[in-house]
Amino acid sequence: MNNPIHTENLTKRFRSVEALRDLNLVVPENAIYALVGPNGAGKTTAIKILMNILQPSSGSAAVMGHKSADLRGKLFSSIGYVSENQRLPDWMRVSAFFEFLRPFYPSWDRDLEHDLIRQFDLPLDRKLSKLSRGMRMKAALASALAFHPKLIVLDEPFTGLDPLVRDELIQGLLERAEESTVFISSHDLGEIESFASHIGYLERGELRLSEELSTLSDRFREVELTFDSPPVLPAQAPDTWMQLSSSAAVVRFVETGFDQEKTNQQIQQILGAPRSVTVSPMSLRSIFLVMAKAGRQQAPESQI
Amino acid sequence: MKQISHIFLKDVRRRWPEISASLALLAAFGWKAVFGWTHPGEMAAATGFAFFDYRFLAGFIVVVLPIAWVFLILRVVQSESLVGDRQFWITRPYEWKSLLFEKVLLLFAFINLPVLVLQIVLLWRAGFHPTHYVLGLLWMQFMLCLILLLPTVTLAVITATVIQSLLALLFIVLYIVGMVALSNYIPSSSFSGPLDNINPLLLFATCLLVIVLQYARRKTKTARLCIVALGVVLLLILVATPYRAIVAHEYPSLGSGTKAPFEVALLPGKNSADVPVTEEDVQMSIPVTITGLAPDSIINFDGVRFELSAPGKASWDSGWSSGGRTLYPEQGRTILDFTLKRRLFDRMRDTTVTLNVSLAYTLYRDQNQREFVIPNGKFELAGVGVCSAEPTPFSADFTCMAPMRRPESFLITADASANTCPVDKNEVRATPGSMTRAWQRGGSDPADFDIDPVQTFNIYASASNPGKNGGFMIYGFCPGTPVVLSNPVEVFKSQTTFSAEGMNLMDYREPPPQLIRFFRERSMLENPIKPVGSPHLTALCSPRKMLSCGFSPQLTIE
């Protein structure tokens, strides 16, 4: 099994609405793959199809070497899935919840369970319905980690949580994720940036990019050029330039395929020789803000 | 197996209140059954009403017990709801077969098994050895599953919550009401026929399909579509069934060379032109004579169909409707009733019409006759159960307790003149030859559908030819009354038709009850003893045997 998650032209329609369109996604083994995108991009739909909660309209998805539609029963004993919307058995106390789940998993690790309970500071005698949202997420995550899953799928696990709980969750996840592949959808780009190895950007049901995070960070740069006099902006800028704008003699744009030599050459050819050039690396948040804005301006079919 | 027991224990811990409630109600049902046998007068003699008297509790338990079971089933099945995409368990290593088996096991453990235990105890308490009725007990469990558990589980697997289930139930009830209303407009659809078994079969097959589909695939939309498709198919069956062809097949006419077992002829009616026609539904009563029936034969009219035609004015066909009336050899007459819409009646009333009456009947041969004198107290009747015939102020019938089911065919015949029941004021003994009959007919299944394996029932006596003695005649069964017991068996089914030409509808109109009462009172004032032979002889029944007098508007025996 090379890629724990692999989709081909995965499409999902809800009546006339196309929630996913030809999604081709590959999540390598042992990666921490973050699927990001604005609200309604199709992240949760994609995850639900992967977990066999929804059926695709067309295309295929394979999870751990099995068609997602066949994912049931024993196959879930190596997959840990946590979602912000998941309905837990609220009537159970935390201890009973773990006790109930234990026999389902041959690889359940009691020591790990105790470690996670201690680390997440879970109150064993309290009912799940009486836990705060953060505590419930921690209980769900602990129950999804305690059996050493080969694949951990997390759907918006950090939504609505305070920073402290978020840190605790991420720390707990990272400490136990070395032997696992993690597939996570999130809005929290700042947190994702700190631990994701791969990133996918989904917008309007289409995967705009999917690559290693380090590559992405390397190729996105904010460029600020200062000229002696206001330059004339080209009618057709290079495809890799986004958000090209000028203010008096200062021109700014985002280079999405940054290469020191090539970018300099393009600047010289299109705008002439600047008095000064400032190239700044971008945060993941900034990168996706740029992409989201570009996505809204461009036709849905256009690719970055 | 480990997973099954694990989920089972979880459900028991979770659902113990519902389980306890249903077990307590079942125990109360057992108490109600035993109390009913040991205090037979409680039901009949009670005249007042109190919230905690036997009648109230018995009725309450009978209604609430199935509701408690339905609630338990919904809660247990929906503990792992199959509807929705947020349940935590759907992404956990649950095996669908284990989950389904666990639900079945739980329902068996807390519904079927307790019912079985209770049934064994009740049989034993009633004096019937449970091991003699294993087949019947299994049949009762089977019927409980088919009629209550399977449909309720189906409802539970296509809904997420009890509220959703109740809403779905409401839709189903509306659908059934609609189907019943529609059937009123489809001629012959109310007549029971061989197709009656198809609808339950379709229902059960669909239930099984939906349950397995939901557990194996959680395809709620498809499962619900299956239910909708079933509704459509049942509707199509109701509308498109060739009822008349089926009746013709089930009740073939006798060949031209074969003599019919009886002959029917129209009697003159009683003109009611002096009573104004104000009713929207005009009741028609057709008195007929039945002749030629062999002494050991009984006829049951299973279905009846009326056709009226007034040349150049109108014609009308009632279609087949259930007959449900029985004719014994000593009966010479009966009345066949039907209803006409006022509009149609008005179009035909001033002209002569032709009436065609078709009768679908079953001929029975009265067999295994043996004489019997009713003893005091309880006595055992082979093939029936334990009976008694102690008269009460309200009836003088057989009251029997039978294991598992009522007898398939058990007839009691008595000469009412030999009746030994005490004679009350205004009552008289019947003249010799006045016959009393009581025919108990049950199903042929190993057991009746019930929770109580001990069937308690009355075999009602009715005067098949009361004779002409004046006053209220005694015709029940009491200790000391000599009777003949027998077991009629079916010989064949057939149909016959008779026609009456030149009929005047006003001669056969039965005025509304309030007008009948008015004219009866007037008639009684003019002539205190009404002449026997009138179609309205039911007025001569003794008040304490009112139940046996056949006040049914469908049939009045002379």
Tally the helices of chain B: what do you get? 12
**Secondary structural class of chain B:** alpha+beta
Structural class of chain A: alpha/beta
Can you tell me the CATH class of the largest domain in chain A?
Alpha Beta
CATH superfamily of the largest domain in chain A: P-loop containing nucleotide triphosphate hydrolases
**Overall mean pLDDT of chain A:** 89
Uncertain spans of chain A: 299-304
Give the low-pLDDT segments of chain B.
529-558
Number of separate strands of chain A: 14
Helix content of chain A: 25-40%
Keywords:
heterodimer; A: 304 residues; alpha/beta; Rossmann fold; 2 domains; six-stranded mixed sheet; four-stranded antiparallel sheet; 9 helices; elongated; disordered C terminus; B: 558 residues; alpha+beta; Immunoglobulin-like; 3 domains; five-stranded antiparallel sheet; 20 strands
Descriptive account of the structure:
The complex is a heterodimer of chains A (304) and B (558). Chain A starts with a strand and ends in a 7-residue tail after the last helix. The longest helix of chain A has 14 residues, at 163-176. In chain A, the strands form three sheets. Chain A has a six-stranded mixed β-sheet, sandwiched between helices. Chain A has a four-stranded antiparallel β-sheet with strand order 2-1-4-5, covered by helices on one side. A four-stranded antiparallel β-sheet of chain A has the order 12-13-11-14. Chain A is an alpha/beta fold. Chain A has two domains: 5-216, P-loop containing nucleotide triphosphate hydrolases (Rossmann fold, 3-Layer(aba) Sandwich), CATH 3.40.50.300; 221-281. Mean pLDDT of chain A is 89; it is low at 299-304. Chain A is built from nine helices and 14 strands. With 558 residues, chain B is α+β, with helices and mostly antiparallel strands. Chain B folds into three domains: 2-244, no CATH class; 263-366 and 492-511, Immunoglobulin-like, CATH 2.60.40; 370-487, no CATH class. Chain B is built from twelve helices and 20 strands. Chain B has helices spanning 2-14, 16-38, 41-45, 54-77, 96-125, 134-157, 162-183, 198-217, 220-240, 243-250, 342-348, 513-526, and strands spanning 263-266, 281-291, 297-310, 314-317, 321-327, 333-341, 352-365, 370-373, 379-381, 385-388, 398-403, 410-415, 427-429, 435-440, 454-459, 462-465, 472-474, 482-486, 489-504, 509-510. The longest helix of chain B is centred in the N-terminal third of the chain and has 30 residues, at 96-125. Mean pLDDT of chain B is 85; it is low at 529-558. The A-B interface holds A 48, 51, 53-54, 72-77, 79, 81, 83, 85-89, 91, 100-101, 103-105, 140 and B 2-3, 6, 10, 14, 84-88, 90-96.
